[in-house]
Amino acid sequence: MSKNKLLNIKDKIEGNEVDLSLCNLTEAPVKELASVSKVTVVDLSCNNITMLTPEFCGLVHLVKLDLNKNHLESLPEDFGSLVNLQHLDLLGNRLSDLPVSFAQLRSLKWLDLKDNPLELSLSKAAGDCLDERQCRQCAAKVLEHMRGLQEEEEKIRQKKLQRGKELEKKRELKQREREAREREVKKREKAEEKERRRHEYNQQMAAQAAQEQQKKKQEEKKNGKATDRARASEPASEPRRSSLGLALKLLLLVLLGLLAVAAACHATDLRATPACRDVNVLSEQGLSWAQEHATAAGELLLSLSAGAKELLESKN
Questions:
Q1: pLDDT tens digit sequence for 66-80
Q2: What is this structure's pTM?
């Protein structure tokens, strides 16, 4: 409202009351009424008000409110915030029902709902308001009716809340089951991956073992061939050693025999025989040849000695 109208409101205040009836108002002057908190009785009757804004519910200091003969089709949802309200006149509006919060108006002692198109149950609760007693009964019965509606609405709300909780629990359960399945799948995939790596590792170890076995067989085969070659060569050298030893033995026997014959021819009476003379001649020639070839004979003896030693070692 304009400043002039605000001044007019102040001009219409008498004590704790303000009379704004028959002012052709289309809405309630909430800000102006809030600025004069000492006013607890407001008369807005016989205007063209079609609705009350939610801000109107902030006028909690109101004790008496007259809204008869307006065009109200509904009241704000938080109308029950006017907890100090004791007297309410809604005669001659277009109300069919009241907000559930109306049950919170515990201080309400007087109520008039005549000439409103009220729904049947609310109309029966309101009854007639033709005198003070009936209007007091209307307030009490309407509050009782609205409390019942509030309880039913609360039950409905609780049921919805319970259903919501149950649905939430079901969603949480499904979520946990889904997460459990996902964990199980991951666990199984991890186990399969581990088994796959283990199988690959075993295959690698088996391949390495096979390679090492093959290498070992090849080495054993090579060593076997070398041994066979050594064994094959041994019989060829053995006969040579055996032949050499036999020749040396025969040579020694011949030498010993010749020495024995020569000794017999020198030491016995046989030296006068023709055979001994020939032996002596041969011995003297042999000695002369030996003296002339002493070095060669020594080398021959050394060779014979080495051959005999080699023969003995090979037999050992």
A1: 999 999 999 999 999
A2: 0.55
